[in-house]
From TrEMBL:
Domain (HTH tetR-type): residue spans on this chain: 20-79
Gene Ontology molecular function terms on file: DNA-binding transcription factor activity; transcription cis-regulatory region binding
Protein name: AcrR family transcriptional regulator
Statement: the UniProt record of this protein carries the keyword Transcription: yes
Listed InterPro entries: Homeodomain-like_sf, HTH-type_TetR-like_transc_reg, HTH_TetR, Tet_transcr_reg_TetR-rel_C_sf, TetR_SbtR-like_C
Length: 200
């Protein structure tokens, strides 16, 4: 997406018309810059691309993780929707494996998303902030719970652990020649540990 054609966004608070225009221009520019540079995208370059001052960028997004969360919100929302679609289809193990695979695919294809989820600054600790990670955990929890109830997964399995695993795999395979395939291979290998022995 270019900075000249911003899409509708989810501004966190009511804004004046000019502030909203700036917000949408910044977000559109951030998407383009993050696509090129990942989580290390420069606030200064984002400001130049959007045509606003750096202070305006920081006023809307006081931390890097706050900006990255907003940039990747739609991708994460799509994954959450996908979990709800899959919730009542197929056997629980297949469904959970498929969804985790899709999460891993998003993480390996979206430049900077895995690094954004790995950040642990105060924005992610704020209980009033709905982070990307929390959204994915909320969406995936029913899939894992169903697998536990059907006896496919161990009761000790935790969806947050699985998301941390998927995220770590995406970061570890970032520079692999075929990072998508390698990430999927490792995900299948390491998630073997959550399945109940009788069903593995």
């Amino acid at each position: 997406m270019s900075a000249s054609s911003p899409k509708p966004t989810r501004a966190p608070h009511p804004m004046r018309a000019d502030a909203r225009r700036n917000y949408e221009r910044i977000l559109a520019a951030a998407e383009a810059v993050v696509a090129r540079h990942g989580a290390d995208a420069s606030f200064e370059e984002i400001a130049r691309t959007s045509g606003v001052g750096s202070a305006t960028v920081y006023r809307h997004f006081p931390t890097r993780s706050a900006l990255l969360e907003e940039v990747f919100h739609e991708r994460v929302a799509a994954l959450a929707d996908r979990a709800r679609v899959l919730a009542d289809s197929g056997d629980a193990r297949t469904v959970l494996t498929a969804w985790l695979g899709e999460v891993c695919s998003y993480l390996t294809s979206a430049n900077g998303l895995a690094a954004a989820l790995a950040m642990t600054d105060d924005t992610f600790k704020d209980p009033d902030t709905r982070s990307c990670f929390a959204s994915l955990a909320d969406a995936g929890a029913p899939l894992l719970q169903r697998a536990v109830e059907e006896g496919a997964a161990r009761p000790s399995a935790d969806i947050r652990d699985l998301l941390v695993l998927a995220n770590g795999i995406s970061l570890a395979t970032e520079h692999h020649e075929d990072n998508a395939a390698e990430a999927q291979r490792l995900l299948l290998q390491f998630t073997e540990g959550i399945w109940s022995p009788a069903r593995s």
